[in-house]
Amino acid sequence: MKLVSWNINSIRQRHEHVQAFLTKEQPDWLFLQEIKCQNEQFPKETFEEMGYQVIVHGQKAYNGVAILSRHPYQLNHVVLPDLNEEEPQARYLEIESQGVILCNLYLPNGNSGGEEGFQRKLHFINALIKRAETLLINKQDCIFAGDFNICPTDQDFAPKTLSENDALIRTESRNGFYRLLWLGLTDALRALYPTETLYTFWDYTRGAWQRNAGLRIDHALLSPKMAEQLKSFTIEKSERDKEQPSDHVPIIIEF
């Protein structure tokens, strides 16, 4: 079983990158974040022809998440249950497939909009924690994966890439991530690579890719049974070297 998560930074600009990647990797599920389009603008037919069912929660020009599934699924939520159902930003998509609850998320960055923007990030984290707690109490196998916009430790960002008050590393953001782990979820990458310096994002500016001045902000958190079945975790860095790449690369989790 293979799941991939990828902040694609505009599906309409990079659908050919995704096509080529799917042909090569053949994942069971692909989580996409920051698709930057409305539902009707998503190139569904392209991926349906490749054998995928396509679930989209889009938004004009910004945000947006999608799941491509090779398997039958049930749609559970397009907004975290603890958030207002009128939530204007498309940042969450949850399905059940093959007996597993699959949660695709694009957490707010928290650096724009001043303190109000940061509080929006914390509100999302708290809703995420409540959803995880509910699933774990009910002993549901689950995976939370996507762009968390959090560097959990200082090892997860290159020196001098972030200021000390950046929302990606503020104490409140990190505590939210730790609370998810304290509930019983496992950081899939750190389960296999506890000490390595590894990144999933490199900014387009200041030669970040060439200098390997990256961040680890794309994560997969696993419920206990899924953690027991974890086989491998791969960061597909080759995608960052392509023409007009996303600033994030895919993370590939195999069970």
UniProtKB/TrEMBL annotation:
Gene3D superfamilies given in the database record: Endonuclease/exonuclease/phosphatase (3.60.10.10)
Signal peptide: none
Domain Endonuclease/exonuclease/phosphatase: 4-248
PROSITE patterns attached to this UniProt entry: AP_NUCLEASE_F1_3, AP_NUCLEASE_F1_4
Sample GO molecular function, one term: exonuclease activity
Cofactors named for this entry: Mn(2+); Mg(2+)
One Pfam family from the record: Exo_endo_phos
Record's keyword terms, sorted: Exonuclease, Hydrolase, Magnesium, Metal-binding, Nuclease
Keyword Metal-binding found: yes
Keyword Hydrolase set for record: yes
Stored SUPFAM superfamilies: DNase I-like (SSF56219)
Homology family: Belongs to the DNA repair enzymes AP/ExoA family.
Protein name per Swiss-Prot or TrEMBL: Exonuclease III (XthA) (PDB:1AKO)
Organism encoding this protein: Commensalibacter papalotli
